[in-house]
Amino acid sequence: MSNLFRAADATSGISGPPSMAEYAADRIFRSIAIASAFIIILLVAYILWEIGQKAMPAVAEYGLGFITGTTWNVSKGEFSVLPEIWGTLYSSLLALLLGGVFGISIAIFLTQDFIHHRMATIFRTVVEMLAAIPSVVYGLWGIYVLIPLLKPLAGWLHDTLGWFPLFGTDLAGPGMAPAALVLAIMILPTVAAISVDAFRRIPYKVKEAAYGMGTTRWEAILKVMLPTASSGILAALVLGFGRALGETMALAMLIGNSNQISMSLFSPANTLASLLASNFPEAGQVEVQALMYAALVLLAITFLVNVAGLAIQQYTVRKFEGKK
Amino acid sequence: MTGKIRLAGHLAAALAVATLTLSGALSARSASAEDAPLVVRGAGATFPQPLYARWIQDYAQQHPEVRFEYEGVGSGAGVRRFLEGSVDFGASDAAMNDAELAKVDPDKGVIMLPMTAGMVVLAYNVPGIAGGLRLPRSVYLDIFAGKLRYWDHPRIRDANPDLELPHKAIVTVVRRESSGTTFAFTNHLGAIDPSWADSGPGVGKVVDWPGNAMTARGNEGVAHLVKITDGAIGFMAYEFAHRLELPMAALQNESGAFVPPGAKTGQAALASAEEIPEDLRVYLPDPAGQDAYPIVSYSWLLLYERYAEPKVAAALKGAIGWGLGQGQATAEEMGYIPLPETMTAKARETLARIH
């Protein structure tokens, strides 16, 4: 009896009240967590404020003309970025189209019992390894492998379908097509990995129910699995698009840095990120302000894309997944 | 072996953007200890960069006590850094103009020395044309004005009856950043046709190129882009085109002859300068003479007249004297034009003023 009381009395057991040290550790951890969360918000706000402040003179001087004009002339002090905005959106959309189709196809292939799940793991690892390749390597690969491969194809398309605006010019070397292709490969791992997770999250019962109702495999994938995973897939596409908008090095090497707006897939163009990277190192004071303004424009585009993505995602959650 | 070297050259060009961003951080001054070699830093034009790199290497073997560092950032940036005082010497293919000279710290003073001269060549990459392209004056002007769009344009065909010119789009490759090579080239074009300067792209270190031109950073960037682009033509220093084995066009000079770039034709162009002014600022926008290559430019070093550290001044004087003497042979070997005797004599006189 007395032994039992002694055991209950002892404070060193598992069920003792927390010590002062444990209280302290708990409080410290809590404050670190809160601080980290706020620091991130502060950091974003600070970056925005800093860029905004540096861009302010340019914003005041060029106003909206900065977004609608087409010249970038340092000597005359005329700056505008419509060709770069066009190039950024065009290359990213092309990349999203290609990378999206391939990424989602890969995700379906890996999750819908086409291959043994061990093989699927290997495939997935290989796809994710694409994300580990530095972008400068992609750029070099684009220059020495992709462009020479594309040239004959582009020449043929231009010769036979030259009336079609997409093939309006010949591919001389760097240009939109190689840039968009490399960009598609670069966003592929992001799109594929997140889409795979989206498919994996679907309870197995859903698929069983679909088969139980007599669907074929394709009907199950296209009409049941894909809509159910749609919010996750959209998140994947938004992230991929964001990555494509901001990608710099490979594009600076492949897009040809030409200040023009062209529908053609094969003509050189320029992007905002590439403009920033290549003009910053030796920009004078006035040009730095204009570049900061360009950075703000890029930030705004990324922000809008993310907000739009979020809105579409919530819409699909309501429509296809029956949640409110 | 050469293939490897060439690939390395391409890599270097492609990585230039990345290194430029890094180099800003690295160029901060470090205090040198007594026994460590004295470090003298400079930055500027990419046009003479291969030559300066070679000179620095050769000179270091004879004088290990000094280490020179040169960063090719373009002439415009070279002048800017020199005015800021963030380098010991600057380099530019366009001598500083009066407005820039006015910004120099009067305590330091400024001296501009032509160190070498070079030809601005038009290198091209046209499938099926291994060399021998001849371009009349009005033709290369219109090509860079964006008016001639295809290589088989009658005006190009007429000048080259022996060549089978393909129906390929002409892609002009120009400099993006402020560049002395651009100045030398556009200064020449402005001399050919005044409307280029007035209503065309203009004359200067940065000009308003037509929108479809591709832009690249540095002479090496232009050479690299021409190399990988079918139908491309770009302007650059001789050495850069030579290194990538790009064919260079023979250009029509003032007297109407077609002259390929070369040591003889370059020297003939420099010899056409009538008189060398006291400040050594000589421009040859359109050299006269049957054999003169039409686009040549001196390349200047920008130096302070008075240095805070006598050691730096002494090191610079030693090395520059060496460059004006022994170095000129290396320049010729590498495709630059050795300075005329009269010029080196004047340059040495001016050099003596540094202290």
Describe what this molecule looks like in 3D:
- The complex is a heterodimer of chains A (324) and B (355).
- Chain A is mostly helical.
- Chain A folds into two domains: 15-62; 82-320, MetI-like fold, CATH 1.10.3720.10.
- Chain A contains 13 helices and two strands; from the N terminus they run αααββαααααααααα.
- Chain A has helices spanning 2-9, 20-62, 65-68, 82-111, 117-129, 135-161, 176-200, 204-212, 217-228, 230-246, 249-254, 272-279, 285-320, and strands at residues 72-73, 78-79.
- In chain A, helix 12 runs antiparallel to helix 13.
- Chain A is globular and about 90 Å long.
- Chain B has 14 helices and eleven strands.
- In chain B, helix 12 runs antiparallel to helix 14 (341-351).
- The termini of chain B are far apart.
- Chain B folds into two domains: 38-117 and 298-351, 3-Layer(aba) Sandwich (D-Maltodextrin-Binding Protein, domain 2); 119-270, D-Maltodextrin-Binding Protein, domain 2 (3-Layer(aba) Sandwich).
- Chain B is elongated and about 60 Å long.
- Chain B has 355 residues and is an alpha/beta fold.
- The A-B interface holds A 70-71, 73-76, 83, 136, 139-140, 143, 147, 151, 169-170, 172-174, 249, 252-253, 256-260, 267-268, 277-282, 284 and B 10-11, 14-15, 17-18, 20-21, 24, 73-74, 76-77, 80, 168-169, 171, 176-178, 202, 204-208, 211-217, 225, 228-232.
- Chain A: Belongs to the binding-protein-dependent transport system permease family. CysTW subfamily.
Features:
heterodimer, A: 324 residues, mainly alpha, MetI-like fold, globular, B: 355 residues, alpha/beta, D-Maltodextrin-Binding Protein, domain 2, 2 domains, eight-stranded mixed sheet, three-stranded mixed sheet, 14 helices, elongated, Phosphate-binding protein PstS (chain B), phosphate transport (chain B), signal (chain B), Phosphate-bind_PstS (chain B), ABC_phos-bd_PstS (chain B)
